[in-house]
Amino acid sequence: MTDLEGGVRADIGRRSPELERMKPLGAVVDASRGAFVVAVPRLKGELDRAEGARAALPQLKDAGGLPRWREVVLVVAFLVGVVAVSFILPSPRNGRVAIDVDAGALWVGVLAVVSLVGLVSQERTRPRSKYFGSRTRNGFRMYLFLAVLWAVALAFIVINWDEVDDYEPWGPIAGVCLLAAAILGAIALAVYARRADRDALGSPEFIHATEPVVDPVEQWWAGVALKLSPAERGSADKSYDVVLTVLEEKRIIRPQDARRLRRKKPPVVWAGDAS
Prior knowledge:
Elements: H1 3-14, H2 16-21, H3 24-39, H4 44-55, H5 68-84, H6 101-122, H7 138-159, H8 170-201, H9 204-210, H10 216-222, H11 230-249, H12 255-262, H13 266-270
Helix pairs in contact: 1-3, 1-11, 3-11, 4-10, 5-6, 5-7, 6-8, 7-8, 11-12
Transmembrane segments: 72-91, 103-121, 142-161, 173-193
Keywords: Membrane, Transmembrane, Transmembrane helix
């Protein structure tokens, strides 16, 4: 056993409990990086400095985006608003409606209001949204689109009011009132969103909080292969091969994964891609 192989095996042995808790491909990346440092110890100082720079960036934990559940609420609320009109508007395929105005008007109004409430509940944080945030300017467009869509539905209901039962018109009337309120609410949201996005994009705090954050450690690993001499590259590649052998022996990765990963170039794995 060479000194390099012994060093890599020792490094993996020390971190086996941690590696076993990881997903297999994550363990490959982590172990291969540890083995790289064993193979090319002169670069450890650079890596330590990159890790120190990462520690000074607490925004890496939250780069300013919305929590996923808030994004989900925004998307679902928007989709509910779109689906609301599908009850009564004619289908583009056959021109038929799912429900006539008498039965569907109330549902349209209720769903439009539900959609609006969901959007209003997220408007305070919407500027940081990936899909509807200030940088995309999609918030204003989304609200205006819903207002126009609901206005079309309202006009359709009014035009086809003869379908309403004259003796029991209160359901459709309530639906029309709710739909009209939702339209006004969407217009108000569009105006507010345009102003909020303009203010956010002019705020240094917002720009700093939402601009992409580069992880110094990941950036270092992405370019580490360019720092190697031919001899160091040979040692580093050998360390990667030893990693796969040891992880397969420890059953952290499967034999078929090891075979596939041996065909992958080590710099790609050091950069974080073991897929």
